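Case study.
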Amino acid sequence: MDQIRIPGGEVLYKEYLPNGLAVLVLPKKQFLRTFGILSVRYGSFDSKFRVPGGDVVEVPPGIAHFLEHKLFEEEEGSVFDRYAAWGASVNAYTSYMQTSYLFSTIENWRESLAYLVEFVNAPHLTEENVEKEKGIIEQELRMYADHPDFKILSMLMENLYHEHPVRLDIGGTVESVRSITVEQLQLCYDTFYQPANMALVVVGDIDPEDACELVRSRYPERSGPGYAVERFDPKEPQEIVQPWAEAELPISRPRYMLGFKHDPLWQGEDLLRTQITMTLGLKLLAGRSSRAYGELYETGLIDDSFYASFRGLPRLAYSVFASDTDEPETLHERLVQRINQLKEGGVDAAEIERFKKDFWGRTVGSLDSFEFTANRITASHFEDVPYHRYLEVLQEVTAADVQSALQDLLDWDRSSVSILKPVNSRG
Amino acid sequence: MDFTQHELGPGVRLYLCETDKFTTLTCKAFVQQDLKPRTAAAAALVPLLLRRGAQRFPTTRDIARELEELYAADFSADVLKIGERQILEFYFQMIDPALLPEGEKLLRRGLETFWEISSRPYGSGRFHEPYFEQEKHTLIQELEGLVNEKHSYALVRCTALMCSEEPFGIYKYGDVDTVRSLENQEVYDHYQQLVNSYPLDVFVVGSGTEQAAEVLAELIKGRDGRNALHSPQQVEVGAPRCFEEFMDVQQAVLVMGYRTQITYPDANYYGLLVGNGILGGFPHSKLFMNVRERASLAYSVSSSIEGSKGLLTISAGISAEQQEQAVEIIQEQVRSIQEGMISREELEQTKSGMISSMNSMNDSPAGLINRNLIGIVHNQLRTIDEVVESISAVSLDDVVRAMQHLQHDTTYILRPSPQKGAANGSN
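After joint prediction, the assembly is written out as follows.
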């Protein structure tokens, strides 16, 4: 197996099976738990694609997430029961660009791992069980709709993007979910759930060769060779939809979110560098040690929910600033001033150096979390971002890089504000 | 992965877990007091004030900078409620000093910083007045903001209504009116008493704990934590009560509260824990299988135990029109366990799931520490192996006997307003 040294000095083992599946194993000495996660490069963005050797089709939003629910169904019993018998737990989630199935166990890691690759490769879709799932998913969508964090982010995306699928909830809408058919689910399954479109990451105190051999011998035969699925993102204009939007929800005080739309043009190490550079820049603007945080907090315009973050994927990039606040308009004015000030100059090299210590510590400390580390490894593989180079790239970034990234990316013409205001419907 | 225990003084205990398994050194200190309306609100204000500034770090920004210099060290404080005790928690984590340049020096600096922030708040003889006033406001907003997360809000409301005549009915952060009436000197004096004369338990997990112990012993010396505390009261249960509340939400949240009459010191405690696991602790549990998978009524449905006061709560996100059906199915599941309708698989799967998650605590510093909280409150720590043994020994009869103690006390439902935006609150 190939060996890759990751930040913190640990060694990641990697091998492609003949069927195209990427297997990545990170041995962790002394740990009792084994964590495995099998991911498909298929998420809520992938509603329009070319059927291999055939036509371009467009399916209703929410199918990737629907499939994730349905793969837990077996002809007899449920996947949960099998794992429970081993004392293991199993779960799954769907995001913009991937669907992941995971288990965590203390004992029986071999059985758990073999069954992970088995059940994900054995869909059991019937008219009856597909209909039954719609009620469950509807409750899931309604739960999120009542959640202010989700609500404000989805509002912001609708105001930044005209066409991009990030406008839609990962689970789709109640209406789109109701319209989904067994045939559509099967078509998407057959198209995307191909070993060459998938990656398996295993973390634990195990032998990498041993784990790899187990997967090689137990991975079910799939018909058809591996291929790259051609996907079509709608053409997204440069402009935003509208610069300001407000809505009401039963919450205790207003929420404010400011977003900047970026062009997702970075790939590979460039994307990693941009992620690091922007995260440093936003920490300087809005972190606990920033001038803005202190001033805005002192004047009561923000509370400790205030944050800023950069999200950069190969198909999507944006930055957000958010906080609960009693005066969203005033907060916005003050933030505009502070952002403009820092864009004009004043990125301090000494601060950036101190942040680098902080980022170094966070990176090394994050190795104790299996979930975080495995997600990083999967994302790194699918998005082709060399996270193993994180600490080197971090050292290379300069204050001048941070300065120019802030100038380029925090473009007011491509920004939008979303505000949630309380509606008082309680008696 | 057990702790060695050291007495630092009367009622002041230090627990050390020496291991080089993690990349971090983790330290948590807990002070406990009886839950009473006024002191609960006062203690809830302390964590907010501590993060504003200490003698050596007068502002949030100064604290943040120091933590960055320490390679992303992390400080936080919070209050928790266990039974009828309120726990003031101080948390500190830093990268394993062995991995840092000049590690020994940084370890001392880190722990001194931890204790400085925890025990020497900014101000003279009282909290800095502007901080005090502002954080009172923050806490009030926090209390009012509970409503923002509907599921946790519903759980808190249900137990508050259920235990309105008992100390347990007090929310961990107190209530708005009490907070509003708090005086600076009063809170400061109470805080001083808390750190100096209430039971204090300090846990350290990582490598080089001996050196950490020396530094901590120096910092904490001269304290006497012998203040006597009370145990929760048990009450007679009358006829079940029902409460409903209306809000402008998409999904209804149903919570059913039961009294168990069984707490941590009781012989049948583990029978009850396993019973709860069979009922609603896992995706293979009766609630998940019947309310979600068979009847499609909910996405989230589960049950949990409060083992110090003796409560069991069941919660489900449902459609309001299906309330009756949901309640019926839930009660049927409780009854079936009480009648011993539990298959061998259900019992074994639940026990191995619980044993597995207990053993998983070994893989997380916070898990290793937090699991001892209930033991501290009841003055009886149990090791992971002891708990695993107790769970293994639970028989079907133990489960039935324990679950027969359940008495339904309160049903609470948060439901959508009949007309959008109309004021319809009622009890």
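Observations recorded in class. Chain B touches chain A through 80 residues (CB under 8 Å). Residues 103-119 of chain B form the longest helix (17 residues). We will return to this complex in the next lecture.
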